[in-house]
């Protein structure tokens, strides 16, 4: 049994003992809190000391308490010789054993006890700032502990029993409703017990400040308009702030969109409508028109006709062309390109029947979808137009079916364009993923054949290497290669640290890599996978005119002369006599040049155009 006596010793006679058993770095991280507690409540536990040969007293147990007392003396809050209650032990007692015993047998307060103790102080009338000062913590820390103390008793009980950890309790504190907390707790399993899942379950019907609508009007404008918010004390940034008045938010969104809609209406559209989100399903019955090059002035059109006639005349010459003739041909080509290279615009006849939808995009900015023609506004086709449409629909049919390799090549361009568009649309990638998984999980007997090959390796972009879509996908791949951990074993930990927004961006890229809308030789044109690809392309508003330009190399040299002439007739409205006698290789180059700025596409790609 230890022999000791208790007495009050002057602080300036106490020194730290160099044999203290506490060696772990970080033991003094809460020294300020301890000093504040001693200043407010006094020293609640005596120090254990032994006398040194120099007449001082070495503190065998209580080194942190000594350091806290010394910091208070240095700050002038207590006297240098402040009396300190101490247990004095004999020199023949093993001091290391005494220090170890004091630390080993002491049981730390359970965090739940600490939360409830802070709550009791508040209920007794102490202010948050006063409690923070007494315990050497910030007011936010006090508010966090109070928030944790006020979760459902069932949550606290599970925490005490070890069924929940502190991070999970903090997630439950996102909601003030005990009933909702207990409902989530009751349904908790190892599949959904991550703090992120708990927060999502408790806030699924709430609007976070990270919502695109809030980004659009700004949180500052919402609060200035009188909108109330609720803040999650344990989350950072906009993901921890929730909008409590959706009516005010909707009013602000509508008002701001109206300003953009007014500007868009001044462009001359037949109608302009406002939506908080553009839902493609609402407008998929509409035909989509695009900007076109306006008709040339009469003088420029006459010049173009003359240049075209001269160019064709040179092409019709027999034998090899002279240097002068070749040079003139180049001059004509350059001038034709200069004349035809005019800025595209919305034609008056399009503005007269089409409209625009102003909405909030996924990036929180105003988004305008122009050129929508409602079914009722589609002009009745004249006999001439019906004839032209019939010609268009039978371009390939008139010259026989396209070669299987060409079909595969064209649909590979379509597939790459869908992928490149999907990689930039995280929200629609989520829709596509849920749709694909739901088909497999919820519909017995239903075909699982979709264009998203989510269970396989990324699909090759072979045959589209030089296209804009391949360039976009390469840029995404490089960006993610720089961000993702080099070791696949570290990917799970990396994913757990990311925000939901970052994970959605990665999901969009991964879903984009899985797209397979290629019609291979063994595929029929009416397969479910290709039909799903068309649906996905429509939802993404993929316009193949933006992704694919038919050239001699990628299209015209791969079809018959008759097919090239039909394409020229379809795209230009008429065929120059000289074209009918041109060699196929020359005719392919003529078609590339003549159709370059018309927006003409092979029929196979028009379903996505």
What would you say this structure looks like, in words?
With 609 residues, the chain is an alpha/beta fold. It folds into four domains: 4-105, Conserved hypothetical protein from pyrococcus furiosus pfu- 392566-001, ParB domain (Alpha-Beta Complex); 133-243, no CATH class; 298-341; 382-606, no CATH class. The chain has 28 helices and twelve strands. The chain has helices at 31-41, 63-74, 95-105, 111-123, 128-135, 139-149, 153-160, 166-172, 178-186, 195-202, 212-217, 219-224, 246-265, 280-283, 298-315, 323-340, 348-351, 383-393, 395-398, 404-422, 426-442, 468-483, 491-497, 500-513, 528-540, 561-572, 584-594, 603-606; strands at 4-10, 14-16, 47-51, 57-61, 83-89, 207-208, 229-231, 241-243, 271-274, 287-288, 355-360, 366-373. It has a five-stranded mixed β-sheet. It starts with a strand and ends with a helix.
């Amino acid at each position: 049994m230890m022999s000791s006596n208790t007495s009050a010793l002057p602080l300036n006679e106490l020194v730290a003992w160099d044999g203290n058993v506490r060696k772990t770095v970080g033991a003094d991280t809460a020294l300020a809190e301890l000093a504040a507690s001693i200043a407010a409540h006094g020293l609640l536990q005596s120090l254990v000391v032994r006398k040194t040969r120099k007449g001082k007293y070495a503190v065998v147990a209580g080194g942190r308490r000594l350091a806290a007392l010394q910091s208070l003396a240095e700050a002038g809050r207590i006297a240098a010789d402040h009396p300190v209650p101490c247990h004095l032990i004999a020199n023949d007692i093993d001091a290391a054993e005494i220090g170890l015993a004091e630390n080993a047998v002491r049981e730390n307060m359970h965090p739940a006890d600490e939360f409830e103790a802070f709550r009791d102080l508040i209920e007794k009338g102490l202010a948050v700032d006063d409690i923070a000062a007494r315990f050497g913590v910030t007011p936010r820390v006090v508010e966090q502990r109070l928030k944790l103390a006020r979760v459902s008793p069932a949550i606290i009980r599970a925490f005490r029993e070890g069924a929940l950890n502190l991070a999970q309790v903090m997630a439950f504190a996102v909601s003030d409703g005990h009933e909702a907390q207990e409902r989530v707790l009751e349904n908790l399993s190892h599949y959904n017990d991550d703090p992120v899942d708990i927060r999502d379950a408790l806030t699924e019907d709430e609007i976070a400040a990270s919502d695109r609508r809030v980004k659009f009007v700004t949180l500052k404008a919402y609060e200035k308009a009188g909108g109330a918010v609720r803040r999650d004390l344990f989350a950072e940034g906009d993901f921890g702030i929730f909008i409590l008045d959706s009516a005010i938010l909707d009013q602000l969104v509508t008002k701001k969109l109206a300003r953009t809609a007014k500007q868009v209406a001044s462009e001359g559209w037949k109608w302009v409508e406002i939506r908080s989100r553009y839902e493609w399903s609402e407008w998929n019955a509409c035909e989509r028109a695009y900007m076109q090059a306006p008709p040339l002035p009469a003088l420029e059109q006459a010049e173009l006709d003359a240049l075209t006639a001269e160019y064709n005349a040179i092409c019709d010459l027999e034998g090899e062309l002279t240097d002068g003739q070749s040079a003139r041909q180049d001059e004509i080509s350059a001038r034709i390109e200069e004349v035809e290279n005019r800025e595209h615009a919305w034609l008056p006849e399009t503005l007269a029947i089409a409209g625009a939808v102003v909405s909030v995009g996924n990036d929180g900015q105003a988004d305008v979808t122009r050129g929508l023609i409602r079914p009722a506004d589609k002009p009745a086709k004249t006999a001439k137009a019906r004839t032209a449409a019939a010609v268009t629909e039978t371009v390939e049919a008139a010259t026989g079916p396209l070669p299987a390799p060409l079909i595969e090549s064209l649909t590979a361009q379509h597939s790459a364009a869908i992928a490149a568009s999907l990689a930039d649309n995280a929200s629609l990638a989520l829709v596509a993923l849920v749709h694909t998984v739901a088909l497999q999980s919820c519909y017995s007997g239903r075909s699982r054949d979709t264009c998203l090959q989510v269970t396989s390796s990324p699909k090759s972009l072979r045959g589209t290497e030089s296209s804009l879509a391949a360039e976009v996908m390469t840029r995404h791949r490089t960006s993610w290669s720089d961000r993702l951990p080099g070791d696949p074993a570290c990917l799970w930990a990396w994913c757990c640290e990311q925000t939901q927004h970052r994970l959605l961006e990665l999901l969009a890229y991964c879903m984009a890599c899985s797209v397979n809308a290629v019609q291979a030789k063994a595929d029929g044109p009416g397969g479910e996978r290709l039909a799903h690809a068309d649906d996905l392309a429509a939802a993404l508003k993929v316009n193949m005119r933006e992704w694919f330009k038919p050239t001699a190399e990628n299209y015209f040299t791969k079809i018959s002369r008759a097919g090239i002439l039909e394409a020229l007739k379809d795209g230009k409205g008429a065929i120059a006599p000289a074209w009918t006698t041109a060699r196929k290789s020359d005719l392919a180059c003529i078609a590339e040049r003549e159709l370059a700025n018309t927006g003409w596409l092979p029929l196979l790609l028009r379903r996505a155009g």
